[in-house]
Amino acid sequence: MITRLESTLRRWRRKISRSEWLARMLKLQINERDPDAPALVLIQIDGLGRPQLDRALADGKMPFLKRLIEREHYHLDHMYSGVPATTPAVQAEIFYGVKAAVPAFGFMSTDSQEMLRMYESNAATKVEQQLKSTGHEPLLKRGSCYVSVFRAGADNDEAHFCPASQGWGPSLKQAGPLALLVLLLANIWSLIRTGALVLLELMLSVVDFFRGLTDGQDFIRELMFIPTRIGITILLRELSTVGVKIDIARGLPVIYINFLGYDEQAHRRGPSSKFAHWTLKGIDDAIARIWRAAHRSSRRHYDVWIYSDHGQEDSIPYETLHGRSLADAVSEALSNLPQSPKGYLANGNHGIQLQRIRLFGGQWVQKLFPVGTQQSQRTGESPMALSAMGPLALLYNIRCRDTPHAEIARLIVEKTKAPMVLYEDPNATEMGPDGNAITKVRGWWRQGAFSLPEDGHLVFGDEHPFVDEAVEDLANLCRHPDAGDFVISGWCAGHESISFAIESGSHGGAGPNETHAFALMPGDIHFPSDGKEHWRPKDIRDAALRFLRAQPARKLKSPPAVTVVSSGNAETLSSTVSAPASREGETTKHPTTTKILRVMTYNVHICEGTDGKLSPERIARVIARYSPDVVALQEVDVRRQRTGGIDQAHQISQLLAMDFHFQPAMHLEDERYGDAIMSRFPVRLVKKGILPGPPTKSRLPGFAEPRGALWIEMDFHGVKIQVFNTHLGLSKAERLRQIDALTGKEWMGSDHCQRPRILLGDFNALPGSQEIRRVSEWLDDTQLKLKGHKPKGTFFSRLPKARIDYVFVDPELEVNDIHVPRSELTRQASDHLPLIVDLRVTVPVAGHVGQEQQGD
């Protein structure tokens, strides 16, 4: 009844949903198919490194992300962003699976000799056309994106605030006055809230403006930073958040959003600055709104993944240190060489911050913030060119006759004071990982010449969290066809980080902080199986593709129906019955150790959630998030018409890759309904059968549903554990008869039932009842057994006050921990919450298991 009430409320909420109405008013395409299909919202926090996130969580700047970790079973992981540590490179790897698609945020195309900056439409379009030609599937196909360099398969109408599709796209332009009026009225609170945030940000911007002048910053740049700061940190964030919520209401399969506010402030004031961390509060709130909208969706099963593309290094601008630009310094350093460069073309000395505001689109914005012109002193068709937009500078067209590359690298390091210079050695090759010959990468730094990867640990330092991968990626970056003749790095081990742009925070190189990103993932989304304890962008892509391609359980192939023939109410498999228990007082002669056994009992309510959706895969995700070794399920449908005719027990076990046994308490021709046990460890079915019903005189209509039990023996690291699963009746008299049967000679009281024993299930009885007291004479209630633990209810999942699901164990099993997860997922998936118990089990030491069994 409560489930039906909540389902009704959800349907009405959908009918009056602002996002739903806005989608229809704007005539946006709405997905009315595949309501059970998985869908994904990818949230990127631009520039937020793992160390800065840890600090923000500790300081209370991101309370919602902290809640995801503590209450929603998300796990916070390290991520290596790759080199170059830039947004375009990371997005290309996530969206297309191509590593280091671009050598830097700004670079020269060696084919056209054109300087490209990835916030420009022509540059983003050109690179994406090359990515499409690789044949890799774009990740955002049939989806949408907000504040992205690439469309990644999203249609033009679905790419918003992107270099090649600025503004909110044609939807608003084509909308009539009525639709725009509804848009404003429907979001009146958001408009008021946004207006207040703009005023607050304006005051902070003015304070920051005078602070910048006090620190000696340029007056015009500080003044221009005020509107860009408000536009990026407030307006762009709020508009994109509203757009994502509309797309969730529409049921798009994959949605990507990038929050730029922190990166914007970190570039300007430094990654650890108070102004940068202030923006994280607003980002955290926006993520909370998106997450709630995703979990209320009635059109798809949305998952929300949160990650960053890279971190930032606290940096000092090169011009501040040396009083001149790097281009001038390099030109002077090489001026005395034969055929030395007499002029240069420079790109990007003043950074990206003042160009991001152009993402809003509109002619007035384009005129107010024009793309900077290229500086040049041309002497011929191909002058020396330098692209420097962070801690990496790419040097092109260096044609110094008869001068070795090593000599040029030495001159640059010594005369410009750059920390490190790298280059390809045209006279040396080595074997690559694929067995093909590749050019050797060498370099120069304060200690002289070096080679990669041999000297990688020396140049990068052993403190670098991803030293081996970063060394390999930096070497491959030097081999990139558009990386130029020399790569100048503003960072190396033992040297303060230098940015070749005017900024206090930088990224794009191989530094330990700029390559140290994070991934905040749901509990059932795990590391790739490559042995590394961190993600990289391609791993995010691979996991996302697997998630999106997963078929709903109703589309998976079910096994053929099996007819079980048995005499009486119970089926006993005598060939699998365990040996008798060892004699009392007998002790083992073999060394032992202790291992944790995680057990779960879960009434899955025929996989129908409190939102009215039938979803075996959602039940599987709940189980997967908590990784039990053995799980007892109640109320499982097999081939019943009311749940789509699928075999829920088989499908859930298939999704979890666990072995299972099913006990049908009810048979309706080919339809069955009952309980199941699933395990990661080897199990043997001992017995399954029907328990006694209520006394004849006490039977009432609706109370005569058959009840069953299932007994398996599990081999847990050499220890045989007896596991029982049951679902007792609704009347007291019936439950007492069923408990007497369970504790009798046919079940737990059998001579063949050796200890330890675990009894799990839905008992439909409160802790103080006569039924539970009778069970407690045989076994311990784990929620009372754990010292200092306050017992928790499991029913009803939205307001779990009743404790009717139990795990009982023999006294020799020690309870290590108990969980009753109250996450949004568990509250939706069933009308019961799962009960999870961690038990300490004494097991033989590895190597003695076989000897012990042989002795038995």
Describe the structure.
The strands form seven sheets. An eight-stranded mixed beta sheet has the order 12-11-13-14-18-15-16-17, sandwiched between helices. A seven-stranded mixed beta sheet has the order 2-21-8-1-7-5-6, with helices on both faces. It has a seven-stranded mixed beta sheet with strand order 22-27-28-29-30-32-31. Residues 362-369, 373-380, 562-569, 573-588 and 851-856 have low confidence and may be disordered. It has 26 helices and 34 strands. The protein has 856 residues and is of the alpha+beta class. Among the domains are: 324-506, no CATH class; 596-695 and 703-855, Endonuclease/exonuclease/phosphatase (Deoxyribonuclease I, Chain A, 4-Layer Sandwich), CATH 3.60.10.10. 49% of the residues are buried. A hairpin with a 4-residue loop joins β3 and β4.
| The CATH top-level class label of the domain at 596-695 and 703-855 | Alpha Beta
The CATH architecture of the domain at 596-695 and 703-855 comes to 4-Layer Sandwich
Instruction: Specify Rg, calculated over alpha carbons.
Output: 32 Å
Ends distance: 53 Å
Total of DSSP H or I helical runs spanning 4+ residues: 26
Give a count of the beta strands, DSSP E runs of length 2 or more: 34
Give the fraction of residues assigned to helices. 25-40%
What's this model, at a glance?
By secondary structure, the protein is an alpha+beta fold. It has 26 helices and 34 strands.
